[in-house]
Design a protein that fits this description.
Blueprint lengths: L8 E6 L8 E5 L2 E7 L5 E5 L13 E3 L2 E3 L6 E3 L5 E3 L17 E4 L2 E5 L23 E10 L3 H7 L6 H4 L15 E3 L4 E11 L3 H6 L6 E10 L3 E10 L13 E13 L2 E10 L6 H29 L14 H18 L16
Antiparallel strand pairs: 1-10, 2-3, 3-4, 5-6, 6-7, 7-8, 9-10, 11-17, 12-13, 13-14, 14-15, 15-16, 16-17
Helix pairs in contact: 1-5
């Protein structure tokens, strides 16, 4: 059974998904009621009244409080504390619901699912292209996958599958035997490769304007626990583009924000940032068509894998060279889980213990 890393920021929703209505979301197996308060900021509370356990999302808002639809207990949106119990004046200490810190930026609502005191907003994923001139940001869909988030994340640091899963959209046979480079030293696990002097793939045939062969690239960045960035693009082969000059070509960042819902349900909210056709909504729409086709191909694979994982296994799993990134990712997740399972009180050791290393 997978455990979820809780001390981390996850995407709860696109900003457009949240209004002043009480709406239930499920994140890391927890039901949460999310809505906008009167000042426009986002509130997120445990979606369960502590009295008879009716979801608060079935109640109603009264200003910036939420009233349970069963017996009228009312909870403050900012603190989670009970402010009213109809028929009595005393408020039991246990009359509260969990409140989850949130942060909104770039049209994305982030939520902290762990210890509130550790919710550092500087740790929220960001990149300069969100606001830099010369780039256009486009938020896509919320793709629901019947798959464990670990499998989805591993797929997002794996350039090798592109040739076989996406032969008409993001890949082609030209890349089948091109080596994949992997680096696991930094904050992100990175896997990348260049395919030189090859026909443009289906994506760039649909949205680019390349008369002949291109040099193209894929750089996969996976940030623990659940954010992935795929930097991919193409440039006319005659340009002889160096790896550090990718901005000279048609360059796109495909962003994937994974929200684990349950053990076998993950939401992949995807977006893209591009350096071409900046004011062209039709170009964004054409890209959406190609992305949806490619991600549907991923979905078929990942959901089939999930089905097989739930069946008894007759032999040990096989690992091959391309699995270096996913293996390091799993280790990082396990390390974070171990930190959350234990409390370190050894940093200021008792004088009875003298360390010489």
């Amino acid at each position: 059974m997978t455990q979820f890393v809780r001390n981390a920021w996850y995407v709860a929703a696109w900003s457009s998904e949240i209004d002043d209505q009480l709406r239930r979301f499920t994140i890391l197996g927890d039901h949460i009621v999310i809505f906008r308060k009167s000042d426009g900021t986002v509130a997120a509370l445990e979606d369960r009244c502590p009295h008879r356990l009716l979801p608060l999302s079935k109640g109603k808002r009264i200003g910036d409080t939420v009233q349970c639809g069963y017996h009228g207990l009312t909870f403050d949106a900012s603190t989670g504390m009970c402010t009213r119990v109809p028929g009595q004046t005393n408020l039991p200490k246990s009359a509260y619901v969990e409140r989850y810190p949130t942060e909104e930026r770039h049209g994305i609502v982030w939520i902290w699912m762990g210890e509130a005191a550790k919710a550092d907003t500087s740790k929220i994923f960001d990149m300069p292209e969100f606001t830099a001139p010369g780039w256009a940001v486009h938020l896509g869909d919320a793709l629901h996958l019947k798959s464990n988030y670990l499998n989805v994340a591993e797929n997002l640091v794996d350039p090798a599958h592109i040739s076989f899963v996406h032969p008409t959209t993001l890949g082609s046979s030209a890349s089948e035997n091109v080596p994949v480079h992997v680096s696991t030293e930094g904050e992100a696990i990175v896997a990348w490769r260049w395919i030189r002097d090859a026909p443009p793939v289906g994506f760039f045939k649909a949205v680019g304007d390349f008369p002949g062969n291109v040099d193209r690239w894929h750089y996969y960045y996976l940030y623990t626990p659940c954010t992935a960035v795929i930097d991919f693009g193409s440039i006319d082969v005659a340009e002889n583009c160096a790896e550090e000059d990718r901005d000279r070509g048609m360059r796109i960042f495909a962003l994937h924000f994974l929200t684990p819902v349950t053990e076998t349900h993950t939401i992949d909210r995807w977006a893209h940032i591009r350096n071409s056709a900046l004011e062209d909504d039709e170009a964004a729409a054409r890209m959406d068509v190609m992305f949806r086709k490619a991600f549907a191909e991923d979905q078929e694979i990942l959901e089939a894998v999930q089905e097989e994982e739930l069946r008894p296994q007759k032999r040990r799993p096989l690992r091959i060279a391309i699995d270096k990134g996913p293996l390091v990712y799993r280790k990082r997740i396990n390390d974070l889980l171990e930190l959350e399972r234990t409390e370190d009180i050894a940093s200021d050791p008792s004088p009875a213990f003298v360390y010489h290393d």
